[in-house]
Amino acid sequence: MSNHTGTHAPHILPMQLYLGVGAALLFLTVVTVVVAQIPLGGWNLVVALTIASIKALLVASFFMHLYYDHKLYFIIFAIGVLTLSVFIVLTMFDTLERGAVYDIKARPINPKAAMYDKPSFQGQGAAVHGDTTKAGGFAAPIDSGTTKHDSAGQAKPSGH
Amino acid sequence: MDGIPAYNYLNTPKGWKSWLLTRDHKRIGLMYLFAIMFFFMIGGVFALLIRIQLLTPNQALVRPETYNQLFTLHGAVMIFLFIIPSIPASLGNFVLPQLLGAKDVAFPRLNLASWYIYVVGALFLIYSIFSGAADTGWTFYTPYSTQTTTSVIATTLGVFILGFSSIFTGLNFIVTVHKLRAPGMTWFSMPLFCWGLYATAIIQVLATPVLGITLILLILERLFGIGIFDPAMGGDPVLYQHFFWFYSHPAVYIMILPGMGIISETISVFSHKKIFGYKAIAFSSLGIAFVSFMVWGHHMFTSGQSEIAAMIFSFLTFLVGIPSGIKVFNWLATMYKGSISLAAPMIYTIMFLILFSIGGLTGIVLGALSVNVHMHGTYFVVAHFHYVMMGGTVMAFLAGLHYWWPKIWGRLYSEFWARVGALLIFIGFNMTFFSQFILGAKGMPRRYSTYLDQYQPLHGFSSVGSFVLGAGFVVMAVYLIYSLFRGKPAGNNPWGGLTLEWTTTSPPPPENFIETPKITHGPYDYDKVIADNG
Amino acid sequence: MHNTAGGHPAHLQHHFSDSEQQASASKLGMWLFLLTEMLLFGGLFAAYSIYRAWNPEMFYEAHKQLNVQLGMINTIVLITSSVTMALAIRSIQLNKRKIAVRFLIATLLFAAVFLVIKYFEYSHKFHLGQLPGKYYTFTGLQGANPHIFFSIYFMMTGLHGIHVIGGMGLIGWMLSRTTRNHFSPEYYTPLEMTGLYWHLVDLIWIFLFPLLYLIG
């Protein structure tokens, strides 16, 4: 006997369902664009992701049939979401909390270091040799231990 | 005792095309077996070159730059071409359908595709050896890997392709276990090797894609300078490590879980006793798979990651040792008051128990954040992972190889020479790697082509040990190959096993079972059934 | 469990006991494959999250360079293509092969429209020098490292675009098989599996759109 994970005696959904879900998705798309124009600070991200999640659930539940299928498939979908969440959350415990316990005693990379003369560094020459206003440039050497750095090791201007 | 059956999967169907285009999981498993044994030898040659270089501090066998390539290749070949596919793709492919009472895996053509993808990935890796082998270490850490002129792209492309082979094998096994169990075989009456392969497959499917995207990012960084890992462009090299280890830590459980599955089989059969704690062992496999995704940061304690993340990862790392411990106790309890038969599979099983325990415990030592600060990047780490990967997985693989060898070929090997080989391997292994624990504790860093004079005695001892170890493998190769030509016919069930593969002929017919097997007892019911030592 | 020759459906493979087992095995296999795709893209979503958290103002400023209308049209296009894909499968379930063919062609057309719009977006960026990493030459944005946003934009939409192209290949193949009458209400598994894949491609874009185009 085969292991039944709910395949059909084909479960044929009515046309209206597909069209209805499609319409809902289009409506939610318009909503998300409109709401994005309203400045809500940090809530913009929450609202946008919530609407996107609802749309995703509609696609998964009805177009991909998860609502009607054996819950094994939903579990697989959920495991994917969960694993990703673990990855992002635990990594952000690092990336957002650097220097939270002990001050980072980093100094900028020495712009005049000999290694920058190697051919592989030529493309970044402008950023390294003295042009500190370009994106990614280096500020002047900093007194270690007294200045907070942001997580990518760049010095934050005081009062940030 | 019967001779080799006339109709078996080796000779039916005939012709080289029937092998190249086979969908028979047993033939695919055999092709994988040859490949992984070949790459184990290649990786071993790199290892011996490393140990020759390190015999004395003045050894000028290779330049330091070449030494970097040697340990990179040793790692990449051993990990991606040997150990990750080793048990699942060879023994797993061969035996899983039979253990379940099935005729094949769920997707036989996908299985063949997995094999060819493996071959293509291997070719890329081999090509990279000759086109300027990578010298970054098998971990390809940025920023060096984005800047070195060696062929990082060829190597990482090879690994990327090999990842697909791993994913498809895992996918195949999950569906096989879910769908193709024989009628009457429930989840909790299937052999524990199946649970091990199932848990492994879950990790393969979940983790390997992240390696895929990591290598893509690395290649894009090298080709187009996107700057995601480059601090000069606002990127973060530690981010690479997060991405890399998110796969590579679960990967080590891909390596060990199938091995643990084999041990569950051999320990029951060769103690002639029902496995102790079936459900505990089954659930601990899933538990390991689950927790393994949450500890990757313990490879990064000294990388500059935040202290908060480091503390969380250290705590979770202690948790992941628990299910492994549960298994070891259950195995020991299985042996207690059993009727132990010290055949070659059991000898390797006992070696596994000793060596894996040492390896696993030293993993917990390294998981302690405060200790890790001193031990990271030293030979202590090298010794730890060789104890778990070689003392663990390879010993379990050898146990499985010696256990299923009669089923695969229909022939028995010489027990005497098997013991000689096992003894050489055990002695050689401990000589090579126990000394490395001491070296590491004394401060010897890893990946160094030379060292201070004070480390010479231990390094010398370790290098000698590596040749003893190599000799053990040569002995093993000889008696195994000899058995193919002169081994006694094995019969259906030389060991008295109770799982379904022992009900077929040795070697089995192409379709595994002529009739659908009837499940009349559990896989370890030595308390209920007299095994048929056919 | 003997499958006597001629007594079982042509599509049934020998190691399965019946069509239902084979179909549900295919479905399980496909969902596992979709899981791997989620994890593959997930890595890029992780990179996005991390870099946006580090550079919130830069992401906000840089994203304004994207064309929200085109993004919204593309979202609508993909959602519609998902509807037509689902309706194509439904048509086969109802044994309406010719209608299924039309829905499949419609799906392909919508996918092509998506790619054409993306082409216009990309070439606009090439023109302005809003390119990833070391090729970034646009001068219209202040602040540190604006190229990071564009690197992430190109990687995420690029990988997604590759999957759209792959999906079009699959749908084209299904179209060919449908016109040749390979599918019926009793057997349409490959079509269903292609549908699942296509819906995932849509699903990923559903997240890409607000994250890249609608940063508040």
Report a brief summary of the structure.
Among the domains of chain A are: about 15-65; about 70-130, no CATH class.
Number of helices of chain B: 15
In percent, how much strand structure appears in the residues of chain A? Answer: under 5%
Strand content of chain B: under 5%
Could you report the average pLDDT of chain B, rounded to the nearest whole number? 95
> Globular, elongated, flat, extended or rod-shaped: what is the shape of chain A?
elongated
The assigned structural class of chain B equals mainly alpha
Alpha carbon gap, first and last residue of chain B: 7 Å
- What's the story with the biggest beta sheet of chain B? none
Q: Helical proportion of chain A?
A: 40-55%
Report the radius of gyration of chain A as a whole number of Å. Answer: 26 Å
What does this structure look like?
The complex is a heterotrimer of chains A (160), B (534) and C (216). Chain A has 160 residues and is mainly alpha-helical. Among the domains of chain A are: 16-64; 69-128, no CATH class. Chain A is 46% helix and 0% strand. Chain A contains four helices and no strands. The longest helix of chain A has 25 residues, at 71-95. Chain A is elongated, with a radius of gyration of 26 Å. The termini of chain A are far apart. Chain B has 534 residues and is mostly helical. Chain B has a single domain, classed as Cytochrome c oxidase-like, subunit I domain (Cytochrome C Oxidase, Chain A). By secondary structure, chain C is mainly α. Chain C has a single domain (34-213), classed as Cytochrome c oxidase, subunit III, four-helix bundle (Four Helix Bundle (Hemerythrin (Met), subunit A)). Chain C is 74% helix and 0% strand. Chain C contains six helices and no strands. In chain C, α1 (19-54) crosses α2, α1 (19-54) runs antiparallel to α5 (147-179) and α5 runs antiparallel to α6. The longest helix of chain C is centred in the N-terminal third of the chain and has 36 residues, at 19-54. The mean pLDDT of chain C is 92. Chains in contact: A-B, A-C, B-C. At the A-B interface, α3 of A face α8 and α10 of B.
